[in-house]
Amino acid sequence: MAEGIKDKVAIIGMGCTRFGERWDAGSEDLMVEAFKEAIEDAGIEKKDLQAVWFGSCMDEVNVGKSATPLSLALKLPYLPVTRVENFCATGSEALRGAVYAVASGAYDICLALGSEKLKDTGYAGLPEFSHNLGTKNRLIFPNMTAPGGFAMLATRYFDKYGLSPDEGKEILAMVSAKSHKNGAGNPKAHLRKEVTVEQILKAPMVAWPLGLFDCCGVSDGAAAAIVCRADMAKNFRPDPVYVKSMQIALSSGEEMMYTDWDGTYVKSAVKCSARAYDEAGIKNPREEISMMEVHDCFSITELVTYEDLGISPRGKAGNDVRDGFFNLDGKIPCQPDGGLKCFGHPIGASGLRMMYEMYKQFQGKAGERQIEDPRFGLTHNMGGFPAMNLISVNIVGL
Amino acid sequence: MIREYTHELNKEIRSISGGYELEMEGKLEMHGKEVLYVVGNAIVDSSCCGVGGCRYALVPGYVKKFKTRQDEQGLWISEVEPIIDKATRQEITRVLMDKEIVQQVQFP
Amino acid sequence: MSGIVSYGAYIPKYRIDRKLIYKSMGWLNPATFMPGEKAVANYDEDSVTMAVAAGIDCLTEIDRTGVDAVFFATATSPYAERQGAEIIATALDCRSDIRTADITDTPKAGTTALLSAVDAVKAGSIKKAMVCAADMRVGKAGSAQEEIFGDGAAALLLGENDVVAEYAGAFSVSYDFVDHWRSAGDQFDQQWEDRFIRDAGYTRFIVEATEGLAKACGIQKTDMTQVIYPCLYAGDFKKIARTLGLSASQMITPLLGQVGYTGTADPLMHLVMALEEATPGDKIAVVGYGAGADAVLFEVTEEIEKIRGKQKGITGHLTAKRELKSYEKMAAFRNLLHTEKGIRGENVAFTAFSTLWKNRREVLGLVGSFCEACGTPQYPVQRVCVKPDCGAIDEMAPYRFSDRKGSLFTYTGDNLAFSPDPPAIYGFVDFEGGGRFWFDVTDVDLEEAKVGMPVEMSFRKKYVDEKFGIHGYFWKAVPAIRRIS
Predict the structure, then answer these.
(1) I need a surface site. Which of A249, B1, B93, C179 has the fewest CB within 10 A?
(2) Is A161 within 8 Å of chain C by CB?
(3) Strands C367-371, C37-39: parallel, antiparallel or unpaired by DSSP?
(4) Do C417 and B49 touch (CB under 8 A)?
């Protein structure tokens, strides 16, 4: 009888580079930077590692294929190293590989490292989608971008819940302003400036109805985690963080090709979080979750995720936003490190960067951003578009 | 409905993917009322999916009380009435696109 | 009896006021002024896409499996080698055991294609033949051609049953009269002096062909209810009528001032316009001009009342307008300006033709699947049913979406995605009867788009890979245009 992952694996070390336009660093530099911090934090040596998971998404513009880029950069001694990719949830997917490997009992200690160098393309952005959607899809998919793909979610959400574009944009602005405030004091963030709601509303449209500050940007960065069997964890440190749940859910095709979905939420997030809460033994997320890092590639994603995670009631997340429910001093602080808005989105690294913040919070090392006595931390990592996506929900605790 | 508008020009407001700067303010007359507008330039040069940006205008609304007080940072604040009527918005958009050669007109 | 069974047309939505062209370029050649407006194909249109649009209009409520031939008349095909008629036939979802032909190289090709189709039907070798004529002629900046050329298409279905306009005879003259020429690989048409064209050709061949037509059909010119011929020069247009002894009622009002001169499509578009108003018994002569002239006579039958109003035709498209407010945009659309697309915009992924071959009906014809187990239409083609409770494998039948109406489920206006006419608008379409997919949306301003807006599907140029010379086609959603009735 399958038991799930709860309390089988612990995180004993993590590292995270400074995220930003790292003109000074290549892919190797980022990997080594994250790795060094993780190894020192765990207090182990390289030879203690038994298997490695490497997350890198846009290999064609940074490292190239296979796991050899990581193996060579770190001079790993003929270890099993697996490269994984699952759109923007690649980072969480790498962690999942390492965690499941340890939970299987086949290994004691594993490393997960996600790294992405996106600033060497020459055109400030990801490769145009027609190149990485497959030979058939490029003939029939619209000429779209990620902001546009998520903007469509906002169009439907405003329409269904009777929000005028002005009202909707104001709620979204509050979501972003909150993250920028948190990121302002975070030395590892790319952008460390507070931005007010009014300043956000004065920015132009990027993909209607999303404006400049509703969209995250491109950055370079890497993050790493070292995991081991739960019953060994206290040998390494007094304050390991335990994995309570790791779930992933992928779209079935219904959103895109069948007319049931009403376009105002992310279906896989609903299903994924339900399974995650079940696995972790959480009955009432609004009461039990202490803090979250969600995939705020776009402010609308974050807003809708509050509802998809079963925390805000359907259509009413705006009320929670206005009440400051998700602020750093609110009931469930969300994006305490500033999120994708302040870190940018080096795809392979983001999922692990989210976990890094949860990890540091549990250990009391979050400085000005410290949340008191957290019980359960949740990371939510999304890849793809609302109509065609994958969601990773991970819950950790003490 | 009255809202406050903070006058802040010539300051670059940045996000990771880009930034904007409001450059000049103006007023135009519409049906006997004074409309406040601001012109800015934006550049989106590090977003995930392309390069963009534009010269654009914002229309906070009809002027009710112009520069009536200052905030803690010394910035002037006006009281404005946001323009809701669709036909008026379309007319202002047409006038501003022609007068100020902007690509977008927003009514925040 | 053989003749016209149905008709259709297409006029691009963008219209530009000719004064705007003259304002922008009149400083160069001040003699080029022309009044009125003209139709400008959008950046995502070309002769092939316009021909498909006219063809779909013509085939409204007609079983497409009955089409045995497709003739495509154009002098501006995007490809010198890749048959336009076959792209059109696939887009119209015709059978594969049909005859296809491109008839080209002169504006007379429109009527020539019509005659080829009529002759094939008369001979009994083809039961139903589709004729699509379209042109997207480009004039150099500041030229008279730039003012006069307009974009458009017409389509006629020829057959033996339910004929609405019976074929009554034809007469052709052919001359290697080089008034215009364009070498293979050249972008622009060149011409000899206007006086030569008017006096030695235009005012002669049309007269010669029409006289010959009257004789061949054993009728008087006064018996012709209408005589349709292209208007290339306003004064000489009237001179031809005088020479033929036509009365005012026999003359058409040319679409020159609303659409422009549309080359191969021109005589057929005016024929469609005439048929929209015709009464049974009318004898309509249509003359195509170029390398000589073809004159063809049709007699309208009682059946015309039965099909009236089913199509959008000329009348429906004339009023579906969108103002093109920028000369520079028109110049950019027609590649008269080298525009900055950016490294990302220029980097088009290579077309896998083997993928396109496997999926040609799906991509070019917008044919998806219908699950026979649960009755759910779905696009793209699926082997595993998308309906959650169903999931049946391999129980699908082909299901065409191209002629289905839909509504815009959601959309956005994207300022980042590269578009020759920003913002790039795209969204999801929910189809009447079932099915949903995401598409680019075109021919609409962002402010007009609304959740729930009625849309229909339009065959468009989805991308151009300039490096490899590939024009990629697919379907986009456009605001639904009402039919005439």
Answers:
(1) B1
(2) no
(3) unpaired
(4) yes
